[in-house]
Design brief:
With 109 residues, this protein is mostly beta strands. The protein has one helix and six strands; from the N terminus they run ββββββα. The chain has a single domain, classed as predicted glycosyltransferase like domains (Thrombin, subunit H, Beta Barrel), CATH 2.40.10. Strands 1-2-3-6-5-4 form a six-stranded antiparallel beta barrel.
Length: 109
């Protein structure tokens, strides 16, 4: 039986970044990014319901919004593939600044 899972192109970096999430229909919620790569991220939200294939905008605190498509869902977490890859040094900077385990507060906008 062939696997339908596509291998990831880039290495995921564990981070904890507060973010706002918004769907195409305008629903929004606060959450956090738990890992990031140039091609995408894993985002967890408190109550935002999404489905595979849904377009979303993820806005990490202090950054421009990152648009993409939900590729998988597990509980309150979703994998988002960005529309355009992030520049590698930006991912490295985010990884260093927001390494998983560093305390960060979730914003409420």
């Amino acid at each position: 039986m062939a696997s339908s899972i596509t291998p990831r192109r880039g290495q995921r970096h564990p981070v904890t970044i507060a973010a706002q999430c918004r769907t195409q229909s305008g629903l929004r919620d606060s959450g956090r990014i738990s890992d990031i790569s140039p091609e995408g991220c894993c985002v967890a939200t408190n109550s935002l319901f999404v489905r595979v294939g849904l377009r979303v905008l993820i806005k990490p605190d202090g950054m421009e919004g990152l648009s993409g498509v939900v590729r998988w869902i597990e509980g309150n977490r979703a994998g988002v593939q960005f529309d355009a890859p992030l520049y590698g040094p930006i991912v490295e900077h985010l990884s260093n600044q927001f390494a998983a385990g560093n305390p960060v507060s979730l914003s409420r906008h």
